[in-house]
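[SOLVED] Need 3D model of a two-part complex

Original post:
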Amino acid sequence: MSKIDLIILIAMILTALWTVMARSLLRAAIGLALTSVIVSMMMYRLNAPLAAVFELSVCAGLISVIFITTISLTQPLTWSEIADHAKRRMRRFWLLPLLVIFTAILVLVSGVNFSLPLPSPEVEGNVRNVLWNLRPFDLLGQIIILLAGAYGVVILFREIKSK
Amino acid sequence: MGAWFILIPLLSLMVISLFSQKQMKTIAFWWIILLSLLQIVLAIAVNGNFWNGPFPLINFEIFADQLSRLMLLSIGIVLFSTLLAAESWIQEDERKFNFYNILLVLLAGMNGIVLVKDIFTLYVFLEITAVASFIIIALKKERDGLEGAFKYLIFSSIATVMLLTSIALILLVTGDTSFTGIAAGLKASASSPVISLAIGLYLCGLFIKSGLMPFHGWLPDAYAASTSSVSLLLAGIVTKTVGVYPLIRIVYSVFGFNSPIQNVLLLVGAVSIVFGALAALGQNDFKRILAYSSISQVGYIIIGLGCGTPLGMAGAILHLFNHSIFKSLLFLNAGTVKAESGLRNMDQMGGLAGKMPVTGATSAIAALSTAGLPPLSGFWSKLAIVIALWQANYHYYALIAILASIITLSYMLSIQRRVFFGKLANGLENIKEGGLGPTLPAVILAAIIIVVGLFFPLFINSIIFPAGSIL
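Solution:
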């Protein structure tokens, strides 16, 4: 593992921790988008640029838009509620960073080698072929999921906001 | 051509959403009724060549055998019943319109699950159905409905992580995601510990989706907290399509049978049968008792699958179909009682059969079929499972299946006695039978239970055994 990969891995863990421990939903959504950006960098480094593009466009882009739209339809908390919420989260998750560090040390010390048979570098020449000829069903499925998610946000949150 | 059964609901949702609910509410209802009836007729009448035929322009790879057709039939029947009941139960126009729209997403998702032949595409359609299920449970917009949806969301997310990790590991080892490609790849590397881990994770993920013990935490709350029409849909077909059907399909078509997989299936099935039945005994809530009964009955399907014999497979598939029908009927009747009396606590009910004769009679038929009494359909599927267990030398499991049937009979009779028989409870003097909406599907479902039971040899030879052996 090169130094760049190590930096990317640590950055991903930090943004993921920030997402879980963030004091507000909006910050958590931004944290998740940042994590997705870093994961897409990792995918690019692992010879999977097509997956990286999808991670960046769908997870960091589209999903974040849906999350932020949903959050904008909810009732914002007052400052005191935010402070209480942050305290509760810290009480609940203070062990999480320690757990991550402990797991990392454990993996390093034990010298575990998963020796998984990694696939050969992905052939990225023809995205159109992958999407439309090889995996059209998955593409259709993802369209339905996004449509269902957006529809769910509209029907579940619009009425609550109007009330 | 099978891809149309995914695309038409999706296109319908888009078109219906373009117009206002006032314009489209009635059209949406009749359109989905038409779609469900079309699905029922085509699933019965048209063979696999029609379903597997090419789709214009885009290469959607569809795989429909007898088992897929049986699932399409069950989906059509339960959807039809739910629609008729919901039309009468849901009062607010906006909620009714939203319910119909989400039904279209559910229909596309469930049809996709039973028509795909790729493990990743299966995962995508499982997620579509899961997302639609969260929304439809939360439609109630009350604390218990949101809590049920949230629990389902958390459990389902854990299952999703397991399934996706498993798919990634399988892809790493076999280099393929199609059912046939994975099955060939797994034979070549059967002893790999990575594959054992992948299979374990996949089975656990599907156990959670099926609501089997000890992975059942979400199920009673999701069933009991949702509105009557949603619990009818969830218990009748959704849980079976997202959990039980993929288990049968993946174990038979992809993983294959070996001793560890069979032992896991038998153990989880037996634990679910016994503890589901025992938990059902202690409930007072009409819907909660049915929810725990579902866990127990799904256990029968899994234990039949765990046999690993053609008869066990046939019993499991028949019980899957039967359970869809009689559990839909029981939830339908629970919904009718709730709609008419406003009650779910069985201690406050009694003597309703006199006031609600259709609901009472059809409920008795469903209860007796659940308990496995001849000549109703539930008897034959349980008999096939018990004989298969005995023939495969799983005598203890056969004994557990028989003894749990007695517990099932006791809690099912308890429902009948506390809700429908005896003296009419105070305050229920003015109660009347539900309208045509819930009673028509109740009569149809009861008729299916009786007809399948009476014409069982015809049914098992023409549909069930081919569904079991084609895999």
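Edit: Chain A has seven helices and no strands.
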